[in-house]
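STRUCTURE:
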């Protein structure tokens, strides 16, 4: 993780309340997600990365399967271990996220990610005019 790009201060927890729009998703040149829930997860993860970037923070998330059990009621049906981890594992190598994984079994730290300059550049491009997020309430 680049020291000058991602903050080492307090992080922002991963939530599924915001999503980036389809036009931005389509412009990234990524392979279409496996299903609708993976697409929602991708849009939410990227939105959180941009929001955290604007606040000078990273986004924290868990790589423990148990952390996702029973959370769909509050976060929506796309908030599952398989969807979150799979999409982060696609977005990192694609150059859109920088990831810092916590050591397995660590109870003090969670893994974090942040937007890369490439993602920030795409989202701030004038081609999208006034960039905005869609707010989603799963309940």
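SEQUENCE:
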């Amino acid at each position: 993780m680049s020291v000058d790009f991602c903050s080492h201060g307090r992080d922002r927890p991963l939530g599924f309340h915001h999503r980036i729009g389809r036009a931005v998703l389509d412009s990234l040149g990524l392979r279409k997600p496996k299903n609708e829930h993976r697409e929602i997860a991708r849009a939410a993860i990227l939105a959180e990365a941009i929001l955290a970037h604007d606040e000078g923070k990273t986004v924290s998330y868990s790589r423990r399967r148990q952390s996702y059990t029973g959370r769909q009621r509050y976060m929506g049906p796309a908030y599952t271990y398989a969807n979150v981890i799979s999409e982060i594992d696609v977005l990192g190598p694609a150059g859109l996220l920088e990831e810092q994984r916590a050591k397995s079994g660590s109870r003090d730290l969670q893994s974090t990610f942040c937007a890369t300059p490439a993602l920030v550049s795409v989202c701030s491009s004038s081609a999208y005019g006034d960039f905005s997020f869609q707010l989603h309430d799963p309940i």
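REMARK: The chain has a mean pLDDT of 84.
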